Amino acid sequence: MLTVRAPATSANLGSGFDVFGVALGTPADVVRVERAPETTITVTGTGSQYIPEDPDKNTVGAVVDALDAPARIRIDKGVRPSSGLGSSAASAAAAAVALNELYDRGFTRKELVPIAAEGEAIVSGEAHADNVAPSILGGFTVATADGVTQVDASIPLVACLPEAVISTRDARNVVPEYAHMNDVVDTVGNAATLTVGMARNDPDLVGRGMEDEIVTPERSKLIDGYDRVRDAALEAGATGVTVSGAGPGMLAACYRGDRQAIASAMVDAFDAVGVEARAYQTTVG
Ligand code: HSE
């Protein structure tokens, strides 16, 4: 039997919609695999009751097919589904790494990214690599149609997860079809700033680069208390705040010593609008 842990991730980071992603140190999914004539999947852990065990409907089933690697698979969810923290991607990433090794398929980690992304199509209708890439490769990743670029960044983060659910499909339905050139120019500038910030491990540049005038304003309307939580995090020292992935999770970049205060401020601000939340203090890793 083989066991692989794959971390939660945050995609988009505001300005890098469908392109940027970071691995979070915690939480994580753990996937155990052993060879079997037919694939079976069992799911335990947080939110497991919402995850289908039918291999045709589970993200991991697509990975099994892509690697032609039937197995008895046990998924222990640490990443809550529909959280914006890359839950389905964590399972798909762990399964891709585990099954590749179990069947000695010989794919590199980078080659496993599009394979794991096939699982994402089951959840969102499209095979995004912006969550599976950092879950497999770690650090900060830039996933485009031409491949993935990875940087071993180390930026302190707070990921705050409210007790609310937004499906990726619903969150994609509010993404505008067109954008004004001014907003595109600003967002490209912010994405470039964020990338430099990751390369330099500079929380100020990363935070500034998280600003996005195209997708985030629409998606933030789906999150009760978004503006209040964002303001509270910024006041507590966050260098930037945005929606994590498709939401409802929110992500703040910061300096290491400010994480505790930002985590408390975000949880309290959600609480003020009647929403229970928990915060993970972590680092891009
Ligand atoms: N980039 C994707 C989105 C991440 O925000 O919709 C979720 O798969």
Protein model, in words:
With 285 residues, this protein is of the alpha+beta class. It contains 10 helices and 10 strands. The strands form 2 sheets. Strands 1, 2, 3, 4, 5 and 6 form a 6-stranded mixed sheet that branches. The protein has a 4-stranded antiparallel sheet with strand order 8-9-7-10, sandwiched between helices. The model has no long low-confidence stretch (mean pLDDT 96). Bound molecules: L-homoserine.
Write out key terms for the chains shown.
alpha+beta; 6-stranded mixed sheet; 10 helices; 25% strand; globular; binds L-homoserine
Write a brief caption for the model.
The protein has helices spanning 59-67, 87-102, 109-124, 132-137, 168-173, 181-200, 203-209, 216-220, 226-235, 259-272, and strands at residues 2-11, 20-35, 40-45, 71-77, 140-144, 147-151, 156-162, 240-243, 250-253, 277-283. It has 285 residues and is α+β, with helices and mostly antiparallel strands. L-homoserine binds at residues 11-12, 18, 120, 124, 128, 130-131, 168, 171-172, 245-246.
